[in-house]
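Pipeline run #58 for the internal structure catalog. This entry was flagged by the ingest filter as a single-chain record with no existing model, so it goes straight to prediction. Upstream metadata was stripped on purpose; only the residue string is passed forward. Reviewer on rotation: M.T. Logging verbosity set to normal.
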Amino acid sequence: MPEKTTYPLTSVKSRVALVKCESYDPTVVMSAVRRGVDLLGGIEKFAQNGEKIVLKPNLLRPRDPAENVTTHPSVVRAVAEILLEKGVAVSIGDSSPRGHHAKIFQVSGMQKITEELGLAIADFENGRQVSSPNSLRNKQFTIAEGIFQANGLFNIPKLKTHHLTRITAAQKNLYGCIPGILKPALHVALPAVDDFSRMLVDLNILLKPRLIILDAVEAMHGNGPSSGDCYPMKLLAFSTDPVAIDSVVCRLIHLNPEYVRTNYWGAELGLGKMNSEDIELLGDDPAAFDALDFKVQRQPELRFNQAWRYRKLKHLITIRPIIDADKCKKCGECVDQCPQTPKALAWPNNKNDKPPIFDYSKCIRCFCCQEVCPHKAIDAYVPFLRRVVDIGYSIIYKA
């Protein structure tokens, strides 16, 4: 396992560096990454000559970097080159929901990086079970084998929206350290967003990366994490505190950090700091990254799938996945990915000549189907009652 840094709750502020990065041009990215790392004390603070560091980007799907589904290879390359200059051995790894490991590396541009820089591809397909004594809820995890082969972990997430957790950034990205075949089972076991978020916090407590480099040069908003639109935020963010960096990003997109439950539980359980007075911002002016028009769910949580007295309202007020028949190519990836048994969506009449149909009484709203759809055919449907409630909250929020 990587050597974990400690993060005690002290009066010392967490540091988050915000660095302007105008494009993914390799020279521009390298300059921005060097600046961000130097603002936090230099690369020597996070890795030493002779060590092995595994880089964990977001490699959700086999998509071209221009689609903004994955961490851009220019960012990963810059981090790897800085480490190689210091005599650090570097590997890259991630676990996708349904495999396709080799194809994802090839299409995302990571294969080219490994070949040109002589990097290893970390084993994220196989795993071993470990105890997590410092966790408060999840005391055991199965972790990708590649993590055990390194001395430390660098987390390199992509900023995107997510229908379950609102955003996927530093804390959510470490979910990929669990081998892909096991992740759907955790969605079934932890359907409530609070429980799922606490699990992610426990996972971060176990794996605590030495450094986080967040790729938001071109973020994804709207129907993320795989079917949304590009948002040119032109930002690279750096920190050792996953709660702080996620909370800062939330404020930049005008989302209450507490509504992202990994932030709330991360602060509660001692992973990091959420309140702005406990965070020191370095680098460029945050106003340069203000993103009021970033499309994300900003209203308080209304899923209610954990509160027994609201379960009868579930179908009237909770957001649910819906298939656009015109976009659906009937590939069946959504059906295969559904973690429920029996599945919450299936082929009508057991034939794949029409789009799959949801049984919302079985659907746990994990949005795994939407996450893996290669044709952007699945979106989130907001029921009328939920829209009315959201309008009310929007009025209060703007006030």
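catalog note: The two ends are 48 Å apart (CA to CA).
catalog note: The chain has 14 helices and 17 strands.
status: ready for reviewer M.T.
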